[in-house]
Amino acid sequence: MKTETKILFTLLFLPPTIGELLSGSSPPLQFFNPVMLLMLVLLYGCGTLLIREAMVRWNLQWSVIFLAVAYGIVEEGLMVKSYFNPGWIDMGILSGYGMYFGVQWTWTIMLTFYHATISTLIPIVLVGMYWPEYASVPLLKKRGLRLAAAGLVLITLLGMMFMGTWENGEMIPFDPHPLLLIGGTAVIAMLALLAFRYRDSRITTHRFSVLSPPVFGIVGFMFQALNLILPNLLAEIGTSGIITIAIQLVFFASALLFATHQVYHRDVTKRHITALVSGSLSFFILFAALQEFNPGMNPDPTQGMLLVSVVSLVMLVLWRRTVIKNETG
């Protein structure tokens, strides 16, 4: 199999594997259902593949963040519509919390950060660092671009029509106000235009000293942990939704500042980036194992999550070893 083909299939299957299987959103019994897996590949895989192609073809650096955020809106805003639906199955205590003008802002900020990092950017980085010689090489021709776009559009439209609230073993379609869907689509278009507008823009900073790789790893772990735990904790103790949203925005801004002053630092190395990625994924590897021992953390059957955790840890260690070896070699 040609290397380009290996990269292509990895980008199609790795994002849903991390975003759905490792996180426990779709435990093994669900994830490996052929119909479910196909849907996830069309959504996560095609979406991430298109972002990676735009990143290469448009020569994007920091502005790829716009496309990563846009993907989160496509999935959670347009397809499953969880940004607007208090009855979405995964909401838990965040159902209706911090909801203003028809948007569950607390959930929206949390899931946008999640998808922008775990579902899209991290898989792209994993592949790019494993096959560095192909990091700037387009993988798709015009036909491939059309097929990937068609797959993403198809699954999004199907979700818009049929996804909703799970009641008595049946999915009841949820239809938010049309202006919310129109607004979400407009924001996606605006973000894509911004990514293209800043396609040649570069950030290289040295104002502060670059932190050590272990600190990068700790930061990655803490960012993912705080993004998921903090909103739920604040809702649990009865914090006002406005206050929680403000805290989340400060958190989001902190992540952007870290990227600006550390990730794009002129002295950053592959060891720093591998540590950041490893720290981010380590949180979900730990979380996956905990779900096996504490099924109450996940309403779905969690058999096999410990195996998912162990396999993921082994693959992450092998990936890091290969990347570091390539750098030193």
Descriptive notes:
This protein is mostly helical and 329 residues long. It has one domain (3-328). Helices cover 69% and strands 4% of the residues. The chain has helices at 3-22, 28-31, 34-57, 64-79, 105-130, 142-162, 178-197, 213-236, 241-263, 270-293, 305-328, and strands at residues 99-100, 103-104, 164-167, 170-173. Strand 3 (164-167) and strand 4 form a beta hairpin. Helix 5 (105-130) runs antiparallel to helix 8 and helix 8 (213-236) packs parallel to helix 10. The longest helix has 26 residues, at 105-130.
List the helices and strands and how they pair.
Blueprint lengths: L2 H20 L5 H4 L2 H24 L6 H16 L19 E2 L2 E2 H26 L11 H21 L1 E4 L2 E4 L4 H20 L15 H24 L4 H23 L6 H24 L11 H24 L1
Antiparallel strand pairs: 1-2, 3-4
